[in-house]
Amino acid sequence: MSIVISVSDLPLSACIGINPDEAGRRQPLIVSVDLTLAAGAQGADLTDSVDYRRIVAEAEAIADAHIGMIETFAQMLARRCLSLGPVRTAVVTVVKPQALPHGLASVRVMLDREQPLFKSVD
Ligand SMILES: Nc1nc2c(c(=O)[nH]1)N=C([C@H](O)[C@@H](O)CO)CN2
Known about the structure:
The protein is α+β, with helices and mostly antiparallel strands. It contains two helices and four strands.
């Protein structure tokens, strides 16, 4: 059995972007996180799982400081999520709906990060 804790389509207002005109203002991001718990974790209580409110809090905290690339945002959030409890892997998706001019398309970065401890040894 493996348990996945997910937060899907969390809307954030983030200080994000590499262009000079993106400094000093906020833009929408939509963030999703899937955390797979370690094999022994049963999710019996919050010491044996991850409180999904903490995932939201970490994402909101990262959104408050200016970051250039959405890849960096995803990496920072994945790293923080791996320390929230008995987490084996974190998959983070960051969508920036207004990244391209005229609302032509949104852009998306997906990142998959695993605890070094849980990497295969064979
Ligand atoms: N791979 C990426 N490409 C770009 C990013 C990004 O975060 N990752 N960001 C930008 C700008 O900030 C854009 O959103 C506005 O022009 C461009 N390319």
